[in-house]
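The freezer alarm interrupted the setup, so I double-checked each line after restarting. Inputs confirmed:
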Amino acid sequence: MEMVKLTINGNEIEVPAGTTILKAAEQMGIDIPTLCFLEELSSVGACRMCVVEVKGARALVASCAAAVAPGMEVQTHSPAVMEARKMILDLMVANHPLDCMTCDKMGDCKLADLCYEYGVKESIFKGEKHNYPVETSNPFIMRDMNKCILCGRCVRACAEITGQDTIDFINRGFDSKIAPFFDTELVDSDCVFCGQCVSVCPTGALVEKQMSGKGRRWELSKVRTTCPFCGTGCNFDLWVKDDQIVGVASNPDAPANGRALCVKGRFGWDFVHNENRITTPLIKKDGEFVEASWDEALNLIADSLKEIKEKNGPDSFAALSSARCTNEENYLVQKFTRAVMGTNNVDHCART
Amino acid sequence: MQNLNEVRGKYQQQYKEKIARPRIVVGLGTCGIAAGGDKVMAALKEQVAARGLDADIDFTSCIGMCYREPMVEIALPGLPAVIYGDIFPDKVEKLLEGHIVNKTPVLEWAAFQIPGDAAPYEGIEVMEQTSYYSKQVRSVTSRLGRTNPETIVDYMATGGYEGLEKALAMDRLDVIEEVKKSGLRGRGGGGFPTGVKWSFVYGAQGEKKYAVCNADEGDPGAFMDRSVLEGDPHAVLEGMAIAGFAIGADEGYIYCRAEYPLAIKRLNMAIAEAEAHGLLGDNILESGFSFRVKIKAGAGAFVCGEETALLNSIEGLRGMPRVRPPFPAHKGLFGLPTVLNNVETYANVPFIIRNGSDWYAGMGTEKSKGSKVFCLTGKVNNTGLMEVPMGITLRDIIFTIGGGIQEDKKFKAVQSGGPSGGCIPTEHLDTPIDYDSLGAIGSIMGSGGLVVMDEGTCMVDVAKFFLNFTQLESCGKCTPCREGTKRMLEILQRICDGEGEIEDLDTLERLCRVIKSSALCGLGQTCPNPIATTMRYFKDEYVAHIKDKRCPAGVCKALLQYTILEDKCTGCGVCLRACPSGAITGEKKKPHTIDIDLCIKCGACIQKCKFDAIVKK
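Predicted 3D structure, all chains:
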């Protein structure tokens, strides 16, 4: 592999060609702030928080998108860089509601973290702020475009992870905004409510509606789980408070799905705490369902199947399996049907 | 390889016969049409036919002198061509009577004459001796106003496609070398050496390559590219084909703004003619080189003049700049190596190949070779299109070619390079025009727009105007440009409204610095230039607005106060009747007064007062 030597803050480092300045600095333990950058998405260098000074360059360079070059001399925290970062944060804050006390993202907001780090308390600018109505018309996603910093992560997540291309930038200048076609509400667009956009939003512009008001982020713990909805086996974290699920967080390290989830996995967990949910086997006795133990229930099934096979022959039995089962479970269903019941009457809901 | 000798010979003969006839030529660029050239054309046709005059009627493109449009040229066989200015339909009869029937030019309307080999007429200035043209050169604009842009006959009869023919017989690297040696730099404003750019694309790996022409001219007051496209469309196509051959591209795109319908029409005609002559398309002149050109009409975004936003737009994406590197030379249109040049750059290429790099490098300065087309607009007497050698001074352009400031007012500043450029004050009027000198005084060459301002212009107001433009046209992608321009505009608005604070100047300076250094694309990085330069050269005006609550130029309405001078007012009552807000009171024949609380500062009273008794300050 071709290696490139450069210096960052006066220290030499050698990294593979094609590495970005951001990644090279990370290897040296230097933290360059980012907002629009996200590992799984393409790098667009839009927010400009990650700018660094490169000797000989005409302007500051977005380290998230610029590759290292031999002999490059980089300063990640020079006075010019610090001034630019502070000003950029100031400009974002100037057009931000600053209602952090009631914001559901408080405690998990990248904009707030960076303002804390760079000491941006309030903006020096007194001027117009956006005053968009907050969109609450769908059951899953709350969109408050007043809090949007236009980093474009949601646009890229929609295009690059989901492949849906539902949202993009509209208008120009100060009126730039992220929206579906013709600035409709999500519910009127071709949005599939996978919520990838929510999972990448660094501010409170996009939040899970179900989580709103259910607890501050620092009160929540994360519990890793596998989605029960289908056989894909998506992994994610549950946001949990007082043993109650309040929401779902993507886990970018999930082996099967990465950050991607569908509407069911991300938003369809409310059955867990539903009072009508069946939590033990039920056996019908005298026309009434009666709670039973697992042993009791499995024995009843085994005895009944044995009886059917003996009385009416193996072909009187058929198994229909579900796409909500894993591959392994589906394998077992057909194995059981063929080897134990002795019939080829096997089918699956996802076959056609 | 096939040569063009036969067809060229035929067209030269046709052209010779055309100009040997008595002829009347109307300037029908968009500029001429806007001034009423099409109506003049109709009147000429009607009267020539009705009177049975022996004269052909033809049209050409922009003749250059915007301030004299509509313009008409009349030439009789063997006699000088006379170019008339301000010819409206009501003048047609006298013009025909004089010049065609009586063979006597109408001196009072003549702008200049081109004698050719003939003896000049008395009493009409010869083109090269007029103050407008004496400092100009005519290379890339040489066909403008001289040939009919809608026929390949005129183009080929005047040396057209000789450059392509010559290039196709050369080694590709030699073509690039020739362009390098000419010293041609990008005429879109960046000034990157064209030959060097071509060599990058030549060396780039890609299954296919593109040559793209940036015709998305969007600076306020700039119309160089439109004039070239409308006046010499084949030159742009020929330049692109030469570039395509040199870099190994078989396809080209012209990204032309949709607001230039005539340019698009003439380009389409030119493409069709070139294809019919085998000069575009497959296996051009049997050389084995194929090149096709498509036109993509822009949808009206200023930022699409930025090269990567332009490429996105051609691809059907939103016009937003891409982060660079990778540069278009390596990853351009559809991810493939692409050379991007603007209209004027491409139009120069056929001349360079045909006449040789030494000829081109003979014009201009050491680091900025050749000529540059400018559009002079604003408060000058002679507005128009001009081509000048690099290195000419702003003073020559504004005071010799431009004929000085309107109404004998004082020159204050000139804005070069549009909203990305800077305001250049009097003390820099002798700056030679080249990429580096303009950069050194805080402005840029830009694509060639020059907007002249006189003493009646408020520089804070000018900065506000340009910031309003860039704010509206910011693509919204990067924070410094999107948010920063908005805050700069708000601060400028406050200063103009008399609500500025002295700390605002420091904030503006910091914003200028940060946006310049941290914005994503060229539009963002240069958008503070109008503020930075006006603050550098006219800081006292900013201070006057803030500290004294006064607009020295008398422009910013909120800071103006209208008063009636007691000793001059005759009490005629005209102002009282003109005032729409009832702010003026007074008895007849006694001095009137203005109630400043009621005054809406519309200026109606000043316009009506015959005694100069009302002042604003």
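Quick read of the result. The domain at 371-454 of chain B is CATH 3.10.20.600 (Ubiquitin-like (UB roll)).
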